[in-house]
Amino acid sequence: METKKTVLAVAAAGTVAGVAGLVLLASPAGAGEAPPALPEIGPEALVESVLSTTELPALSGAVSLENNLGLPVPGLSEMGQDGAVRVFTDGNGKHRLQLPSDGGETTVIDDGKTVWVWDSVDRTVQKTAHGAEGKGKAETPLESRFADPATAARELVDTMRADSTVAVDGTARVAGRPVYQLVLAPQPDERTLLREIRVSVDSETRVPLQIEVLANGQADPAVKVGFTEFTAGPQDASLFQFTPPAGAEVTEQTPDKEFRGESAEDLFAGLDIEPYGEGWDTVLTGTVPADLLTSQLPTGPRGEAGPGGNPLDLLGTIGKEVSGDFGTGYVIKAKVGTALITEDGKVALGFVPEEVVTEAVNQMK
Amino acid sequence: MTTAPVRAPLPRLLRSELRFMLRRPRTLIALLALAIMPVIAGVSIAIAADSMGGGRNAAIEGIASMVEGNGMMLPVLVLLLAVTMLLPLIGSMWAADAIAGEAATGGLRNLLLAPVSRVRLLAVKAFGVATLSLLAVVVMAVVSVLAGVVFLGGAEMVTVSGTTLPFTEALGRVALLVVAVTVQVWAVAAVALAISTCTDHPLVVLAAATGGIIIFTVLGEIPSLDWLHPLLLTESWEAVADVARDPLPMNGLTEGFLRAACYLVIGYSLALARIVTRDG
Asked: What residues contact residue A52 under an 8 Å CB cut-off, 6+ apart?
């Protein structure tokens, strides 16, 4: 009978161990871990060190996005569900991105000269040569402004300080790495829906590993994008080479300057975007041609029944109809912001409550 | 451990158990059916390229779109399809036969009354179930590789990530796939063995295993229960398709392996507790 008792004790221990293991697997990694001890750093110094690392170091990692906006964003929600985007870079301008799509994968490889885009669902490869465009990008004034990170950081922090409190709020762990948490919060008199923006900066490489946007009255971030895995260090060179696999359909594309530059600018010019207000309650206002709102929507890409009707009908289903001095319009509310679109084509949106967008639309001519 | 004066050597017991199981016609028919499935899949994909798509979950569709003209991808597709129901059911069938089946025919009574260690009895039965489950997965994988190369062509594997792996590396990926799938089948079979020790009716075991898999799959589809999902064994089954990605992501596979190990330990522990307390 002694053996029976021993066997039962072993069996009980095994069951408990198995259940404990399952619970351990289910609990997020690093939960309940004490935040790492890191040397103190001021917000200016932290921002400066982030800006001085203009090019990403060689790294591999996985990025995932959690969207808790309370608004369906096509494409975005899929990213979080299907798994993480895998990122590789060699620190010298070569990159590799692997995005999950429909159970397959879209792989983007920039080997320094050519950008390859592989789509596993259709088994197609798109090839785009870098050409002169890539070089032109490096000389943009934006980059030269960051040439002196210390000044840029000071300016940036000063600008932000006018409307926000900037602080380093302790340390944490993101993707298993110790990070500083830089917190930008609006001043109390700002009329915004946002509570704070939290940027987690890797203590070693000073790469921002995670950005969280928190709205008022929400415990979980409305948007959280960041690394779930991060390993800095040299990467295998073969990761950044691509040979189209046998049987794949390869199409070559030339970088179309007209399409990328001018027409997008034209579109923005047509929208006539103007900011209203400043700081956190900036509202972007603009107009869309009224005929665009009443035009018939195309049906779905695969010929299935599309939403049908015109954009105004669509707005009516996702937004709330309101009327005021501006006439009639639709308000679309998300956790972090509000958009107002009137029937005559005025558009206003910002990280603000409904009264501020209404105010912005009212002052428009 | 008990009073048996002379004990039969363990290797001989294990060999005889395997021979006993392999001689049963239903074992052979199950293995044959598993071998035919990849052939049918290979031929039908070779004839009609789009025959696999539509109405399935994303992971299966993602692999299915890669199979045409890419024979080394066939084992991935076949095992991904089989791990969701077919292979766990066959593993449960053997687990049902091992204890409950013996009980139904009256064989277990003699074994339990005889001066044989019950721990040893369970170990021999569990070994038989595990070995046959491994054999089932290996048969499927080997036939898939052959059918893939013969009917679909291409000795290299074009991964979902768009890279091309040479034949040896592709075989390595298939071997990893076999290990990953086998561990999942073992986990189901271990739980089925625990149920098997509790009943005299093998059908109850099969019904419970089928029902369990279906319930787990349904629970996994409900977004509001996402806190529960990491506890479900079925959650890691799609991750076996990761072997077709390059570079190989180990996260999902490792997590699936650990989760299956937990279920394995729980299943065998419960089976052990029940078999030593069971009346003859």
From this structure: A149, A150, A206
Averaged pLDDT of chain A: 76
Asked whether the beta carbons of residue A103 and residue B156 sit closer than 8 angstroms, the reply is no
DSSP letter, residue A36: P
Q: Tens of pLDDT along A8-55?
A: 999 999 999 999 999 998 887 666 677 788 888 888 888 888 877 766
What are the Cα distances from residue A146, in Å, to A85, A150, B181? 28, 9, 52
Among A21, A62, A83, whose Cβ lies nearest the Cβ of B258? A21
DSSP code, position B234: G
Does domain A43-251 match CATH 2.50.20.10? yes
Q: Is the separation of the CB atoms in A348 and A276 below 8 Å?
A: yes
Instruction: Characterize the bridge pairing of strands A283-287 and A274-276.
Output: antiparallel
Amino acid at A160: M
CB contact under 8 A, B57 and A19: no
Q: Which residues of B touch A249 (CB under 8 A)?
A: none
Q: Indicate the residue of B162, B259, B263 with minimum beta-carbon distance to A245.
A: B162
For chain A, the structural domain boundaries read 43-251, 256-362
- Nearest Cβ partner of A104 from B57, B65, B69? B65
